[in-house]
Write a structure and sequence with these properties.
Layout: H1 2-7, E1 13-17, H2 26-29, E2 34-38, H3 57-63, H4 74-81
Parallel strand pairs: 1-2
């Protein structure tokens, strides 16, 4: 996953990880030009991380009822927080 992300032709990257203990990926994926959001840190499960759940609570809020066709001004987002 890290190699594919680093080799992607875009200079800025946004990564959203919805999984139990998803924070374990943070250090490997973060760069000065990436935004990484995880459902939990490396030592705790995410809320809603149960057998049979399709999404964590984080994933549910992030993915459901979103208009992914709408443009996102990632430059402004990165400028504001970077």
């Amino acid at each position: 996953m890290q190699l594919a992300l680093l080799e992607a032709p875009t200079p800025w990257k946004a990564v959203f990880i919805s999984a139990c203990y998803s924070g374990v990926f943070m250090d490997t994926l973060k760069t000065s030009k990436s935004m990484v959001m995880t459902a939990a840190d490396a030592t705790h499960p995410s809320f809603g991380c149960n057998f049979g759940q399709k999404y964590t609570y984080f994933g549910n809020e992030l993915l459901n009822d979103r208009n992914f066709a709408a443009p996102v001004d990632w430059y402004s987002i990165f400028s504001r927080y970077g």
